[in-house]
Amino acid sequence: MKVLVIGSGGREHALCWKIKQSPFVSHVYCAPGNAGISKHAECVDIKDTDIEGFVRFARAEEIYLTVVGPELPLALGIVDRFEKEELRIFGPSKGAAEIESSKVFSKNLMKKYKIPTAFFSTFNDFDDAVRWVKEVKPPLVVKADGLAGGKGAVICKTEEEVFDALDAMIKGKVFGDAGERVIIEEFLEGEEASFIAFTDGETVLPLESSQDHKALLDNDEGPNTGGMGAYSPAPVVTPVVHRKIMEEIMIPTVNALKEEGRKYKGVLYAGVMIKDEEPRVLEFNCRLGDPEAQPLMMRMKSDIVPILNAIVDEKLSGKTIEWRSDASVCVVMASRGYPGDYKKDFEINGLKDVESMEGVIVFHSGTALQNGRYVTSGGRVLGVTALGKTVPDAIDLAYKAVRLIKCESLYYRTDIGRKALKYL
Ligand code: AMP
Ligand code: GLY
Q1: Burial class, 394, CB count within 10 angstroms (exposed 0-12 / middle 13-18 / buried 19+)
Q2: Which string of DSSP letters, residue by residue, matches 236-272?
Q3: CB 355: neighbour CB atoms within 10 A?
Q4: How far is the CA of 286 from the centre of ligand 2 (A)?
Q5: CA 332, CA 312: separation in Å to the nearest integer?
């Protein structure tokens, strides 16, 4: 069968790499893809917002299965459009994807169905918000309602910080329409984990646990990014926490969406804050995490393609996934300046040396090929991902590989995975 993967990041590289290994798959396309992806898939120049372009391509190439990586095409309704054309596609409908694309929808759903999360209120008027903040008192988190590329949440320790964030979002429209409505919520303490599951709207099949490192700098300092590294498994998700997340969060949420007439098919990702083994939801995403997907795909032993097809066919019941017992760590190498402005087109050397290392794969995000050489072309550039018997082994191997990659403009955190060590 022919498979089309939509997207161009490290997550999509990991997906293409994994899908390509399936004996059921004859050809993998990726749109738009990147230089690294072009080793595992044929890249096609269609932008991830060009829904009609994808419909035409899937028809013309007789694509059996389309897999959507990022949230934007999902929020634009690509799944509804494909289903109307009777084309097979993996991902939630536009209505179901609102669990990520509208924080107001997501928080109200959690409130209605008593899914544990921070208390909150919704505002589109600056003065109303100010009155509420004066009553409840910081620390608080201000969040834009709509998609803001992972930058829509501002943690505020003082009233002034809350007012500045509100001012920027409601009056200054720094996130455009996405910030017209805001959520203000309780600041939750604890340790974060990513809990990601496959679901066909009835059955919830969890992936292994993982943890992302959102802050730019070591020790979780500096501004938030899309993710500077990830590891799996995340020991903060103990068996007790795992059971609670499934019983109190994942299953009730999938049932709630069905109840609301928005049956959810695809990947449901809960960002959870865990304190004293009590998980609470920070956010839901309607897709795999990036960079969490990179270690997860490396650890997945089973063929992913029958699972994706079972979800499309709503026949996930009884399916299981086999995982390697190894841990996996992904260190992101990003352009200096990211998540702000950065320069591009710096040559990347050493990738060949890393290719020959067993247990290491470099997933590409922002890379391009110029005269046969890899150059930087985005904020996050590479996700150097390694397997190891234990998290420390995987950390050592990943950083050994990172040090072989030579590029003057690349920066990386030096403490990816370190949070897991306190549990060992
Ligand atoms: P979000 O855009 O909702 O994913 O939030 C981005 C990041 O902000 C999360 O990964 C957390 O690190 C942090 N965050 C969001 N909401 C809260 C909260 N209520 N309490 C503490 N930290 C939060
Ligand atoms: N790594 C966080 C995310 O994908 O949203």
Answers
A1: buried
A2: TS-HHHHHHIIIIIIHHHHHHHHHTT----EEEEEEE
A3: 12
A4: 10
A5: 31
What residues line ligand 1, using a CB cutoff of 6 Å?
118, 141, 143, 152-153, 155, 185-188, 192, 214, 224, 271, 282-283
Ligand 2 atom nearest 230 alpha carbon = 1
The tens digit of pLDDT for each residue in 260-311 reads 999 999 999 999 999 999 999 999 999 999 999 999 999 999 999 999 999 9
Find tokens 């110029």 and name the residue.
Answer: 370
Nearest CA to ligand 2 atom 3: 289
Q: Which amino acid residue places its CA nearest to atom 2 of ligand 2?
A: 289
pLDDT at 313: 98
CATH architecture type of domain 2-91: 3-Layer(aba) Sandwich (3.40)
CATH 3.40.1280.10 is right for the domain spanning 327-423:
no
Which phi and psi (to 5°) does residue 55 adopt?
-60, -50
Closest residue by Cα to atom 5, ligand 1, is 153
**5 CA → ligand 2 middle, Å:** 18
pLDDT at 370: 96
The response to whether residue 152 sits with its C-beta less than 6 Å from ligand 2 reads no
- Which residue in 241, 198, 190 sits closest to 220, CA to CA? 190
Domain locations in the chain as residue ranges: 2-91, 119-186, 191-312, 327-423
Best residue for ligand 1 mutational test, from 157, 278, 282, 285 (most atoms within 8 Å of Cβ): 282
Ligand 2 centroid from CA 291, angstroms: 7
Mean pLDDT of the chain: 96
CA dihedral 269, 240, 114, 158 (to 10 degrees): -70
Structure tokens at 33: 């893809």
